[in-house]
Write a structure and sequence with these properties.
Arc Repressor Mutant, subunit A, Rna Polymerase Sigma Factor, Chain: A, 177 residues, mainly alpha, globular
C-alpha cells in the first residue's frame, strides 16, 4: 500500500469517527439556528463536506468540536442571509413522549412550540450564543471562540436573548390563559 493510500485511509477513518460522534450535535445546532429541518440537513452536510476537505489542516490539539461549531454557525449565517426568510422549526418528537399521557404530551408540544417561536424571534447572534451556551452546554470562552467575539459580548448576547425569551414566554402564557 502506498503512503498516499495509507494517509487517505487514515483520514477517512478519522472523518468517520468525527462524523459519528458529532453529526447529531451539528444537526441540532443547525436546526435551532435555521428553524427548518431541510435547511439544517443541508447545512450539516456542508459542514461535514468542509470537514472532509480541510481535515488535514485542522489543529488536532485544539480539537475538532470547536472548529465544527464555528463552521456550523458560519454556514447557517450564510444560508439565512442567502434565503432572507423566516422558516418554521419542527423538532423531532421526544421518544419518551410516546409513553406519556395525552395531557403531558400536549403540554410538551405547547412548550416546544413556545421555545421554537421564541428562538425564531431572536437575532442571529443572540440565537447562536444562546443555543451554543445554554442548549449545547459550551463554555462562554468556547462560544466566544466559535463566534469570533469576546466573552463579554457573548454574555451580553445571552443576557439579551434570555430577557427577550422571558418577555415572549410571559406574553405567550398570558394569551393561553
Amino acid at each position: 500500500m502506498t503512503a498516499y493510500r495509507r494517509e487517505e485511509s487514515a483520514n477517512l477513518a478519522v472523518f468517520e469517527r468525527i462524523l459519528s460522534q458529532c453529526e447529531r450535535r451539528v444537526l441540532r445546532v443547525a436546526l435551532r439556528l435555521l428553524n427548518n429541518p431541510q435547511d439544517a440537513q443541508d447545512a450539516a452536510q456542508e459542514v461535514f463536506l468542509r470537514l472532509y476537505k480541510h481535515l488535514g489542516r485542522i489543529d488536532e490539539a485544539r480539537g475538532y468540536e470547536a472548529w465544527l461549531f464555528r463552521v456550523t454557525v458560519n454556514v447557517c449565517r450564510d444560508m439565512a442571509r442567502a434565503r432572507r426568510r423566516s422558516v418554521a422549526l419542527e423538532e423531532a418528537a421526544d421518544p419518551a413522549s410516546a409513553q406519556a399521557d395525552a395531557y403531558q404530551e400536549a403540554a410538551r408540544a405547547q412548550q416546544r412550540e413556545m421555545v421554537r417561536r421564541g428562538l425564531a424571534r431572536l437575532g442571529g447572534k443572540e440565537r447562536a450564543a444562546l443555543v451554543l451556551r445554554d442548549v449545547e452546554g459550551l463554555s462562554t470562552r468556547e462560544v466566544a471562540a466559535i463566534l469570533g467575539t469576546t466573552e463579554n459580548t457573548v454574555r451580553s448576547h445571552i443576557c439579551s436573548a434570555r430577557l427577550k425569551l422571558r418577555e415572549f414566554t410571559s406574553r405567550w402564557l398570558r394569551r393561553r390563559v
